[in-house]
Design a protein that fits this description.
Blueprint: H1 2-28, H2 41-53, H3 57-67, E1 72-76, H4 86-98, E2 105-109, H5 114-124, E3 131-134, E4 137-140, H6 142-151, H7 153-160, H8 165-181
Parallel strand pairs: 1-2
Antiparallel strand pairs: 1-3, 3-4
Helix pairs in contact: 4-6
Length: about 180
Amino acid sequence: MFSRSIARQLLRQTTSSAAAAARPAAAAAPAYAFSSTFRQPSSLFSLAQQQQRLLSDTTKQAIDKAVASAPVVLFMKGTPETPQCGFSRASIQILGLQGVDPAKFAAFNVLEDPELREGIKEYSDWPTIPQLYIDKEFVGGCDIIVSMHQNGELAKLLDEKKVLAAAEAEEAAAAGEEKKKE
């Protein structure tokens, strides 16, 4: 019992002396001491300019051409047959479930080209891969694709853009019926 009371006293002394030692240091520091570590808006703007400069004109042109190569374009890790990450696999599976026409789809493996891998992130201002483009417009990454799939927005968008294999077959069938009537 004696040793417990001594231990408590020692503990109180060390905690109270540590707190007392910390108080004067905190009180002595001016309130604006950390303001110098914050960046001014102009320095943030120049940082954004530097990041944009990393995307070469050649890479930008190549990405522009890739995005325009098909109505549905996916920049992914791996290929549709052998995705190299779970997010790319999930994106491919969702596009398959939606019924995207393979003739209207293109996939680009960012693992084959380091410039493409970094450039696509700057091009879209989106930090992750995979990235989906529909009619040259950036849609989002895997999280956005999953969310749109779950709430029905992706099916609606793909149908509006006429990139579904089933929609094409229905159009051909409707055109065939019209010819029969004539």
